[in-house]
Amino acid sequence: MSANASPQGTVEASAGDVPALGAIPAGLVEEGQIDILNMAAQCFMARGYASTSIDDVARKLGSTKGRIYHFFASKADLFFAVAEVGMQFNYAVVDPCLKMEASAVKRLSHMAFAHCLSMIETQAYQHSVWQGVEIHVRGSTTPEQRERLNALIDSRHRYSELFRTVMEEAAADGAIGYDDLGIARQLMFMTLNSPIFWYKPRPGETAHDRRNIARQCTNFALAGLGIEAGR
Amino acid sequence: MSANASPQGTVEASAGDVPALGAIPAGLVEEGQIDILNMAAQCFMARGYASTSIDDVARKLGSTKGRIYHFFASKADLFFAVAEVGMQFNYAVVDPCLKMEASAVKRLSHMAFAHCLSMIETQAYQHSVWQGVEIHVRGSTTPEQRERLNALIDSRHRYSELFRTVMEEAAADGAIGYDDLGIARQLMFMTLNSPIFWYKPRPGETAHDRRNIARQCTNFALAGLGIEAGR
DNA sequence: TTGACAACATACTCGGTAGTATGTCTAATT
DNA sequence: AATTAGACATACTACCGAGTATGTTGTCAA
């Protein structure tokens, strides 16, 4: 709503330069909401949407429900805010790869890597996105919030389409080979998304370590699509 | 408990010969429980464990809570029963592959295919297994049921170890190549498990169609591990 | 200095759901 | 024929958690 000018402006991330936790794209959320979103994402990841109570989130914040309901109309509202921010992260890192001047395979590789790294660096948010798409949010009987859910799924779908386009280009170049495009894309995404579930930050971990993990996932996915260990 | 003799005895499935829904391994469950388990699995998959009420399951059964609580002590008890049956399915189809007289890669291929097909054919059960391992079942504050959860996770872990052994053999043969074994196994499993989430039976679908899907997943996973389209 | 409003905290309501207690009906047993 | 027990249905309780209503405190403008 308010044209709030943030210090870092629009996130200008090149592939791999992922926004850190807490650096949420400008203009999307008010200042006081960031902590809430972070903690909510953590809780949703740890226990799932349904079994996370607002009081749980409040406890993690060291405050009470009042603070949360001051900013968010409902539990579902809070959840969708988290998920939408998660999708913003993804678009922010993948978009630059789309505009690269390079072959389709090369662009696809960069997109895959950027996406995967985003899964790692914004894990909690992405876990919420997943839950949202997996529709465990059923029970949002409110028509207004079903609209919100559809919007999220749609956002996710359009995002997925970005990859489809490039995959088809790459296939036309003869660079990759698959049987069924739909299945191939599902498998690629599952591979790239998988850190959402099994990634756990190690004590002395560096950004380089995370990039290494993302690289392995990307290589696996591309190999699955029939590409040599490209880079 | 009771040594109940079932018509088909122990499930003797060769790779790909997956038990159909409703054909639950003998001796595990009483007759009257099968429908309950099937419907519970359906509900847990559709809405998730937490947001599925016992009344939901009962409604799907066309009966009431009484029937469910007659057989299962609690909601968590019902859930674990579903998940454990799911794991039984997996062990039943993968075990024969382990004992095959063939190279490690070949055995791995068969295991992967059998596992993936099991994900498809017993999807609802596997979805519950997933949720159990993903610990959305937190809230099982009962110590007795935390024991049950640990047992499930342990079962899943031992199952995963079956694959690790063969993967290491295959790597020793120089047949596959990966960077980090742990990550490679995670990626392979995610690929093979993925039908749990996106598979949806088509109207006129045949067993052959399902095997075809499983084959694509398996090929993707094996290619990801650095194997040519084996089999 | 005094409204006024944002940013919370506190205290309450109310519906949904897990679990229980009890009733009913049928089939097998003796 | 009477008894028992399994397989449910019905009716109820107790609690938890989402949402609300209202109070409190600090800050800033006029």
TrEMBL record, chains A, B:
**Which ranges does the entry annotate as DNA-binding region?**
53-72
Asked if Cell membrane is a keyword of the record, the answer is: no
Tell me which stretches of the chain form a coiled coil: none
Q: Tell me which residues make up the HTH tetR-type domain.
A: 30-90
Q: Which InterPro entries match?
A: DNA-bd_HTH_TetR-type_CS, Homeodomain-like_sf, HTH-type_TetR-like_transc_reg, HTH_TetR, KstR2_TetR_C, Tet_transcr_reg_TetR-rel_C_sf
Report whether DNA-binding shows up as a keyword of the record.
yes
Under Pfam families, the record lists: TetR_C_24 (PF17932), TetR_N (PF00440)
User: What SUPFAM superfamilies does the record tag this protein with?
Assistant: Homeodomain-like (SSF46689), Tetracyclin repressor-like, C-terminal domain (SSF48498)
Could you list this entry's UniProt keywords, alphabetically sorted. Answer: DNA-binding, Transcription, Transcription regulation
The protein here is known as AcrR family transcriptional regulator
Query: Which organism was this protein described from?
Result: Rhizobium aquaticum
Lineage, opening ranks = Bacteria, Pseudomonadati, Pseudomonadota, Alphaproteobacteria, Hyphomicrobiales
